[in-house]
Design a protein that fits this description.
- Keywords: NAD, Oxidoreductase.
- This is D-2-hydroxyacid dehydrogenase.
- With 337 residues, the chain is an alpha/beta fold.
- It folds into 2 domains: 127 residues, NAD(P)-binding Rossmann-like Domain (Rossmann fold, 3-Layer(aba) Sandwich), CATH 3.40.50; 185 residues, Rossmann fold, CATH 3.40.50.720.
- It is built from 12 helices and 12 strands.
- Strands 8-7-6-9-10-11-12 form a 7-stranded parallel sheet, with helices on both faces. The protein has a 5-stranded parallel sheet with strand order 2-1-3-4-5.
Length: 337
């Protein structure tokens, strides 16, 4: 049995062991480990997919796109495991037509992404790295007083944290915000998740934007939410508020966000995702925005979360081979974060 991993580097740059995949397949298929062949590639360009997959019946992909045209050239393919929660890299309708099962990996990064939201927010509040560098350049040694600070220091307690999208990550973020003494507002299509949660208040999106000191995006990317953070959205926020996006870059109209920050419509933005990844060098949010913090789509990437992702992906294959597939997304086409 042949398995091909098309773009394994982001998930496993060398600190995890791919053998968990081989072992899961061998056990589930009741095969000797020696005849389970696993081919791993750090990255695969679209024009190399067909030649690399060959006669393999199982492939794993993270961001390598699998279009209908590509899938039609792989008649032996029976299973696609997406090494992520979002699965819009796969033409799911084409997969359904060819009898290919597609699975994803939900919920592997809930704790680490929620933690990262607050890593970004606390960095914004205290600019710890800037002060560390100042001390190491001798600025503290030259001070006449025991203490100094280069930027305003912000306390979170008593402020309002607004969450758009209240799935697993949104719920975890709400718990952390409450632990910091913040008032928590949420708006979500799945408001049932907020029922009987004493520290969460369900409001309309307009109410959330008008009242929140922090607005954090945790909603899926779909036709309804694409570009939702636009000029109108930003003008409804408080001028002192900060926007956080660890969900999907395309939720944000980036040109209008850049303009809003530059004109002090909002105070700033903390972004771990962009609509194009990696971005062009002269991206409007990178080129000149001092009040925007951008990190390279790494909120998900703790070793614990990546190991959990790999374990779930391996379990997905095993479940499929045992005739009880789990986390199947090829029954519908609503790609979610």
């Amino acid at each position: 049995m042949n398995i091909v991993i098309l773009d394994g580097y982001a998930l496993n740059p060398g600190d995890l062991n791919w053998e968990v995949v081989r072992s899961a397949v061998a056990e589930a298929a009741n095969l000797p480990l020696s005849i389970v062949e696993l081919s791993t590639y750090e990255r695969t360009e679209p024009e190399h997919i067909v030649s690399r997959v060959g006669e393999a019946s199982i492939i794993l992909t993270n961001k390598t796109p699998l279009t209908g045209e590509t899938l039609r050239q792989l008649p032996q393919l029976r299973y696609i495991g997406v090494l992520a929660t979002g699965y819009d890299v796969v033409d799911v309708e084409a997969a359904i037509q060819q009898g290919i099962t597609v699975t994803n990996v939900p919920s592997y990064g809930t704790d680490t992404v929620a933690q990262y939201v607050f890593a970004m927010l606390l960095s914004w509040c205290h600019r710890v790295e800037a002060h560390d560098q100042a001390v190491k350049r001798g600025a503290w040694s030259r001070q006449p007083d025991f203490s100094f600070w280069l930027t305003p220091q912000t306390e979170l307690a008593g402020k309002t944290f607004g969450i758009i999208g209240y799935g697993r990550i949104g719920q975890k973020v709400a718990q952390l915000a409450h632990a910091f003494g913040m008032r928590v507002l949420i708006t979500s299509r799945s408001q049932r998740n907020a029922l009987n949660v004493p520290h969460v208040q369900v409001v309309t999106q307009d109410e959330l934007l008008a009242q929140s000191d922090v607005v954090s995006l945790h909603c899926p990317l779909n036709d309804e939410t694409k570009g939702m953070v636009n000029k109108t959205f930003l003008n409804r926020m408080k001028s002192t508020a900060v926007l956080i996006n660890t969900a999907r870059g395309a939720l944000v109209n980036e040109a209008e966000l850049a303009e809003a920050v530059e004109q002090y419509v909002i105070e700033g933005a903390l972004l771990d995702v962009l609509s194009e990844e990696p971005p062009q060098e002269h991206h409007p949010l990178i080129a000149k925005q001092e009040r925007i913090i951008i990190t390279p789509h790494m909120a998900w990437a703790s070793q614990a979360a990546r190991r959990r992702l790999l374990d779930i992906a391996s379990g997905n294959i095993a479940a499929y081979l045992n005739g009880m597939p789990q986390h199947v997304v090829s029954r519908h086409t609503d790609s979610r974060q």
